[in-house]
Each structure stands twice: as structure tokens, then as C-alpha cells.
Please model this.
Amino acid sequence: MSRHYHFIAGLPRTGSTLLAGILRQNPDFHADMSTPVAGFVTSLLEQMGAGSEFASSISSAQRLNICHGVWSGYYQNIEKPIIFDTNRLWTAKLNILNSLFGNDFKVICLVRNPAWIMDSFERVYRQNSLEFSRIYSPAARQNVYTRCEHIASNQGPFGSAWAALKEGFYGEFSEQLLLLDYDLLVSKPEKSVALIYQFLGLPSFAHDFDNVTYNASEFDKNLGADGLHQVKSKVEFTGRKTVLPPELFKKYSDMAFWLEPQGSKASLITQKTP
Model:
């Protein structure tokens, strides 16, 4: 079966699971949580690259065929014509996607004021007070400052995704990206999703924003972070007071680089201020 691939990336705690739950209402779409496809492709290219034992016996055409084989093998049993593969690191690998698919792909990148992302991680941690979440090391979980520092580090779930998104946003393939603000997705879901379809060049579909279903409870429990991927059935905005100290909230709010889009060709559905 012929399949067309698009991608979901961006920052954590910004609604990528919610977006997958919305998109999969369309019978032509397959969307899910993060997959290992990006890791598979990267590992294979490392093994086939310069300095490896078999580099001299593998041609460029063979590298391309092997990478395409990962896609066809992983999605072999998915009977959908349009696949959305999710991985936050795709925005740092747009050159690979371009080599595989030319410019015939798009990446939907979910973003949000980074301070609220840190607030969201902190809330999940506090809600699971009797669980030692695998998100943090013993040293990193000491207090809100060490927890935020870990989340925002180069190896942390926010820091690594933030760096990957920034690379793609200012890179040569930035026109393949659409940045969508979480607050707009949940406050104006119908308009936001309509703009996604427009960006993808696909016919519209009547989604039900009052009955979105997605369940990843077992994954979250194994991580020691119950509720990390919880999706409410009704898409709506819920305001709240932050649990972060004021200086932390300001520090991370200042990391919203997409509010200054000069030098990027990415499309934006975002707030004008953090």
C-alpha cells in the first residue's frame, strides 16, 4: 500500500499526544506517541557511515534503500495512507528526511511558553509524590531548581527537544515546519486543526473535539509519572496558577525563540507573547 509520511515533533508537554488523538479520528490517518523510527535510522546510518567495518561495501543507493526499509517494515501492518511519525528529534534530522522524501513531507511542531512546560513537568512530579520517577536521577530530583535544571539540560526531555527545534527552525528546511502553540490548540481547536490541514494540503475533516480518546496509562506508570500523557476527552483551555518560583518562570519564558521568527521560513500558529 502506498503511504505518505508526515511528522509530529516540537517540545514536550505541549499537546503532541492530544494532537495524535485528534488526527487519528480521520480514518485516513495514523498517529501515535513517539516511535523508535528516528533512532533506528540514525543507528543504521552510524553503522553504514565512514569508519565502520562495512562502509566501503555500501553504496549511497543502498543506504537510501535500507532507510526506506525501516519505514516500510515498521508500518507494514498499518492500513492507512497517511502516517504521522512522532519524535521530538526529527527537527534536528530534517536533512535526513529531505534525503529520504525530498520536500514531500511536513513537520507539525507543538510549542508552548517554556515556563508552562516546566510547570507541567513539576506538577506531574508532585502528583506522584510517592513514586521516584525515572525522568529524574536521585541528584536531579532534590528540589524544584534541580528538577527544572535537569529537564532543561542538553540531555533532558525539554532541553534536547528545544535544541532540536531551534536547529530546524533556523535551518535550510524550515519551510517544512509548522509551529502550533498549545494554548491555541486547546482554546481554538477547530480553527487550529483546519490550519494544519491547510498546511498539509489535505482536504478538511469534521473532527469531534468533545470526544478525543487516547490511553497511555501503562506507559506512564512504568515511567513513574502517572498522568504524563493523560488526554481529556473534551479539548478546552484550563487556566491555572504556576507552581514555579517567579525567577524560574521568567527564566524559562525567555526561551521562546519562535516569538522572534526573523531568519526562519517556518509557518506559525502561535501567541505573540509568552
Summary: The radius of gyration is 19 Å. The mean pLDDT is 90. The longest strand covers residues 4-10.
